[in-house]
Amino acid sequence: MEKHIDFHARPSVPLVVAHRGARGHAPENTLTAAALGFAVRADLWELDANYTKDGGLVVMHDDTLVRTTNVEAVFPGRPSYRVCDFTLDEIRSLDAGSWYAGRDPFGRVAAGEIDADTLGSFDGLTVPTLEEALAFTRDNGWYVNVEIKDHARLIGHETVTKDVLDLIRRLDMTDRVIISSFQHRYLEECRVLCPEMATGALVEHVRPEDPVALCRRLRVNAYHPDQRILAPGDLAALRDAGFAVNVWTVNDMNVAGRLVAEGATGIITDFPAACREALER
């Protein structure tokens, strides 16, 4: 039976969230990483929404294409490699998977956890559009956290929230998505443009003076802190105030277990299989 997640309520059991898909064992933010997260029973996956030069929405974490594609080889000498300086067709022509084997970002290739055939299957992976990623989620009866990247210094700052919401509504997925962002203005826009959409406030670097007050002011459903800025008592206070707390990015499963014991409602991890196993012990 399909598991139902109500993002408007604090779940009674901890959620395992596959960060950019199961990126510990596959190229991040690709449909291959998403499929692996689904296969290992993550409750949902997390992805990043970014604008292209011509107003397309693609799944890409960084502001630039350099780290996770072969853009410099395909388009040598371009003055900028920002996502927003490339058209959708240009981005779709890139290889978003072959970098993984050589870079081995989590040491899993060296550890022998990813075989040669699997590594070979990463070659030629494309950057998915947000629509493709959402459709994959819907077609598998799954759920997704869409992080809207901060476009304040890029193109689309005034329109990205509306465009993301319009796409989610067109695909009839408002009950399968939670929107998060470090740009809290977007969360406030969500509340106006789509009151039924669940939202989560992302925070990093500096702990808010009062996380509960922040969540109340933004009228979000969840608080998404970097694990390094959680203070003693935060989880209990947010839980008692009725907010979900989805903590990132937790790759130490002993820490994941401790956070859940202290009241975390979701663990955002690069290793959802290990996290699922740890939380079910």
CATH superfamily: Phosphatidylinositol (PI) phosphodiesterase
Stretches where pLDDT is under 50 for at least 5 consecutive residues are none
Give the total of domains.
1
In spatial order, strands of the major sheet run 1-2-4-5-6-7-8-9
- CATH architectural group: Alpha-Beta Barrel
- Provide mean pLDDT, rounded: 97
The proportion of residues forming helix, as a percent range, comes to: 25-40%
What amount of the residues lies in strands? 15-25%
DSSP helix count? Answer: 12
Shape field:
globular
Q: Tags for this entry?
A:
single chain; 281 residues; alpha/beta; TIM Barrel; 12 helices; 33% helix; globular
Could you explain how this protein is built, in words?
- 43% of the residues are buried.
- Helix content is 33%, strand content 16%.
- It is built from twelve helices and nine strands.
- The chain has an eight-stranded parallel barrel with strand order 1-2-4-5-6-7-8-9, surrounded by eight helices.
- α7 crosses α8 and α11 crosses α12.
- It has helices spanning 31-39, 71-74, 88-92, 99-103, 116-122, 130-139, 160-170, 184-193, 211-218, 234-240, 253-262, 272-279, and strands spanning 15-19, 44-51, 57-59, 144-148, 177-181, 198-203, 222-225, 244-247, 266-269.
- The chain is globular, with a radius of gyration of 18 Å.
- The mean pLDDT is 97.
- It has 281 residues and is α/β, with parallel strands linked by helices.
- β4, α7 (160-170) and β5 form a beta-alpha-beta unit.
- It has a single domain, classed as TIM Barrel, CATH 3.20.20.
